[in-house]
Amino acid sequence: MGQKINPLGFRLGTTQNHHSIWFEKPKKYCESLQEDKKIRDRIKNYIDNHRVSSRTDYISRIQIEKVRDFVQVIIYMGFPMFLIEGKPHKIQELKVDVEKVLHCGNRKLTISISKIRNPYRDPNILAAVLAHQLKRRVAFRKAMKKTIEFAQKEGSAKGIKVQIAGRIDGKEMARVEWLRKGRVSLQTIRTKIDFCSTTVGTIYGVLGIKIWVFANEES
């Protein structure tokens, strides 16, 4: 059997970079790692609870940079209507909420929003769109085809693969269904593969979603 590996970790240092940039002593490494998880959870929960529309404010990734007494958080988003329109009041409100989970309260925290250029080329945004369709009980195959169409509209993706696993359509036996359009080269390290793995709760149970996007090929 083939051994599966996360496409992002497999390409660290070549076409992928870390989303957390900091250095910590071994004894405090776990504490800082947990702090990053809490910061990301706070931001995601805040945006989910204050989202203007189900078609806006999708989070691509959250980058955290730490130095001795300074923490910088950059939120890369697609269609950031809520936070952009609510500046600076909403950003300040989010900042106060995130400061509650920082281990050292005397550190300075800054939060900024960065709008990504091609939202529908990002697998995290595509997964959020697919999850929304599945929650509305759209037929899974139709939802998968619609997700692939969104990715193809951007024109910069050379290939995409969408996979759903679980009790699809309420069937008693769980199964895996997938669709692929174009080329998705997972074994070549120099290829720029963006990957997302998430879950969505439906009335039949939890479904797993995985999306691979082949953006381009590095020389």
TrEMBL record:
InterPro entries, per the entry: KH_dom-like_a/b, KH_sf_prok-type, Ribosomal_S3_C_sf, Ribosomal_uS3, Ribosomal_uS3_bac-typ, Ribosomal_uS3_C, Ribosomal_uS3_CS
Domain Small ribosomal subunit protein uS3 C-terminal: residue ranges: 130-213
Entry GO CC: chloroplast; cytosolic small ribosomal subunit
Superkingdom, taxonomy of origin: Eukaryota
GO molecular function: RNA binding; structural constituent of ribosome
Annotated transmembrane regions: none
Cross-referenced Pfam families: Ribosomal_S3_C
UniProt record similarity statement: Belongs to the universal ribosomal protein uS3 family.
Protein name: 30S ribosomal protein S3, chloroplastic
Organism: Geranium renardii
